[in-house]
Automatic annotation (TrEMBL):
N-acetyltransferase domain sequence ranges: 35-197
Entries under Gene3D superfamilies matching the protein: 3.40.630.30
UniProt cross-references to Pfam families, sorted A to Z: Acetyltransf_1
Name of this chain's protein: GNAT family N-acetyltransferase
UniProt cross-references to InterPro entries, sorted A to Z: Acyl_CoA_acyltransferase, GNAT_dom
PROSITE patterns for this protein: GNAT
Species annotation: Herbaspirillum robiniae
Length: 248
């Protein structure tokens, strides 16, 4: 009941669209679950840590530009400035993070692509999705949400440390109708973002509300499972195991 209501809300706010809108031509992928992208707070650091530590070396290399050790990952998570940056996450039913997008804002002068804009701030985006949840649209939704945040924050340049050999990421950006510029080196890609309008501002606010509702439903469900396990004496960790893709 709550799930189906959330799915309807998601469709209404654009969250439930299976693929990004700017390119417009992508057909819906009916077998894919609805993905809710939620803005994270400092309270999510433990979840973030677990997500990043589970990434294999090759994925850490793609995500961070180098094979960070566990200690460096921990330091990275501890140092995320939630007041300055925006971190988005996609949770599964057990409230494990399936995907994370970190949108960091920095003054233009300090950016590797400083010549690409006259705006005072440039955004840098890094994204990762748990191996078990790939190919379901999670990365796409995180990317779309981050680019919408840029639009609404009057940031027109989105930088990504992303090799051209990263076909999946290239595919996601192109699917969103974005041209990938590489004037500053092979690994330094940037995208130009459209200006905001009243619809994008409304849509972002609604998407966050729906994602928050989804999170509350999942949190209550998890608490109920725990309580049920205690009462019945079955104990054990509910659903402990590999990450499951989100269900709509
Ligand atoms: C890049 C990443 C975030 C994508 O996440 P994801 O949830 O699997 O992405 P999605 O499911 O939204 O989209 C993947 C798309 O790539 C397509 N794809 C998969 N393999 C591909 C390939 N070899 N070449 C081109 N496209 C490919 C899929 O078909 C899908 O497209 P579709 O939606 O049109 O069918 C994930 O693979 C990841 O975490 N990689 C490691 C870290 C990384 O590379 N981060 C990016 C650098 S910042």
């Amino acid at each position: 009941m709550a799930d189906s209501l959330l799915s309807r809300l998601a469709q209404w706010t654009g969250l439930g669209r299976k693929e990004p809108q700017p390119g417009g031509a992508e057909p819906a992928k009916p077998d894919r679950p609805t993905v809710f992208v939620k803005e994270l707070s400092p309270r999510s650091r433990r979840h973030l840590m677990r997500h990043f530590l589970a990434l294999e070396d090759k994925d850490r290399l793609l995500r961070f530009g180098s094979k960070l050790s566990d200690e460096m990952v921990a330091r990275y998570v501890q140092n995320i400035d939630f007041a300055r940056d925006t971190v988005f996450g996609v949770y599964d039913r057990r409230l494990r993070l399936l995907g994370v997008g970190h949108l960091a804002f920095a003054p233009r002068e300090t950016s590797r692509v400083s010549g690409a804009t006259i705006k005072p701030v440039v955004a840098e985006f890094g994204v990762s999705v748990s191996a078990a949840a790939r190919g379901l649209g999670v990365g796409t939704k995180l990317f779309m949400r981050a680019s919408m945040r840029c639009r609404n924050a009057d940031v027109d340049t989105l930088y990504m440390h992303c090799l051209s050999s990263n076909k999946v990421m290239m595919h996601i950006a192109k699917k969103a109708g974005m041209e990938i510029h590489r004037d500053y080196g092979e690994a330094d890609a940037y995208l130009k973002i459209q200006p905001a309008n009243s619809a994008t501002i409304f849509q972002e606010a609604m998407q966050e509300q729906v994602a928050m509702l989804d999170y509350i439903v999942k949190a209550n469900f998890k608490a109920l499972l725990k309580w049920g396990a205690r009462v019945t004496g079955l104990g054990g960790k509910p659903g402990g195991g590999a990450d499951q893709p989100p269900k709509s």
